Amino acid sequence: MTETTAEAGEAAERVHVTRSRAKPGGTAAGSDGAVPFRRARKPPWLKVPAPGGPTYRRLKAEIGADNLHTVCEEANCPNVGECWERGTATFMILGDVCTRRCGFCNVQTGVPTWNDPLEPLRVANQVKRMGLRHAVVTSVDRDDLPDYGAGAFVGTIRSIRMQVPGCKVEVLTPDFRGQEMPLAKVIHERPDVFNHNVETVPRLYPKARRGSKFMRSARVLRMAKEMGGEEVVTKSGLMVGLGESFEEMVEAFGILREHRVQVLTVGQYLRPTENHLPVERYWHPEEFEALEREAYALGFESVASGPLVRSSYHADRHLPERAAASA
């Protein structure tokens, strides 16, 4: 190599390239030129301590050893530390691969292969070890199965009732494609609470819940109440932060009440990764309080509305509240 060539090489290495205006800021780009995803700074009311207490670590080890899944982990729930320290958890049956691709959900999408007939027994055994008084059971969407996964809910409800007779059972199910027979199988077991989340307002379904329909979900909730009567409490939940208005939220509440939903949860959407829908804005705690007042005015028996509220957050408190409201 000549001296001139070497000098030219050193000069080329020292060339400064101005950062593209499309990606401003101080984050260094990777070798492929992409700027790593950085979560937006959250308002102070969304800050929670990182999980890591002794009960949390014990439950994490036990649940992992039983090859069970929890929505607490799969969905990156901000309350996982608090709930697990209280000795409560939401079990996710039928694997951890979903057949649908919602724009807000952190559960992986693909072709499910999970088929474990002993899973209901293992869930019940874990519920018994944890000493739960209120167990929540949910699942991924399994549109690949003939009954959309209803049989697994039936088996899990029965197993919990056999192993822990005094434990209340709440199910958080998919929409079963609006089919009556899978829903009827689940309601026949008389879960204490039937929960199906509509997640967001009707206008945002095309971008947030591809493959789902708001009114179909509402009808599932109404049918569950008609089938279960006074023995089954109906429940649903929504998020804010995807671009909905206050008026749209109240309108969605009204539709749910028309479809005989009794318990409502409202929480803030938090973007899991750069591949998910962005947060349009963070709602202030006072706005959640206003939503709660509107929901009670519409006739809901129990309402949990707050930035960190999730569908199963303090789920065990909804039934006592309902009893007090009915007294």
Account of the protein in words:
The protein has helices at residues 3-13, 54-65, 71-74, 80-85, 119-130, 150-163, 180-188, 205-208, 214-228, 246-258, 285-298, 318-326; strands at 69-70, 90-93, 97-98, 108-109, 134-139, 168-172, 193-195, 233-240, 263-268, 302-305. With 327 residues, it is an alpha/beta fold. It has an 8-stranded mixed beta sheet with strand order 1-2-5-6-7-8-9-10. Strands 3-4 form a two-stranded parallel ribbon. Helix 6 packs parallel to helix 7 and helix 7 (180-188) runs parallel beside helix 9.
What is shown here, in short?
The protein is of the alpha/beta class.
* Distance linking N and C termini: 92 Å
Cα shape: globular
Number of helical stretches of at least 4 residues = 12
Low-confidence stretches: 10-29, 322-327
Beta content: 5-15%
Instruction: Output mean pLDDT.
Output: 80
List the helices and strands and how they pair.
Blueprint: H1 3-13, H2 54-65, E1 69-70, H3 71-74, H4 80-85, E2 90-93, E3 97-98, E4 108-109, H5 119-130, E5 134-139, H6 150-163, E6 168-172, H7 180-188, E7 193-195, H8 205-208, H9 214-228, E8 233-240, H10 246-258, E9 263-268, H11 285-298, E10 302-305, H12 318-326
Parallel strand pairs: 2-5, 3-4, 5-6, 6-7, 7-8, 8-9, 9-10
Antiparallel strand pairs: 1-2
Helix pairs in contact: 5-6, 6-7, 7-9, 10-11
List key phrases describing it.
327 residues, alpha/beta, eight-stranded mixed β-sheet, 12 helices, disordered C terminus
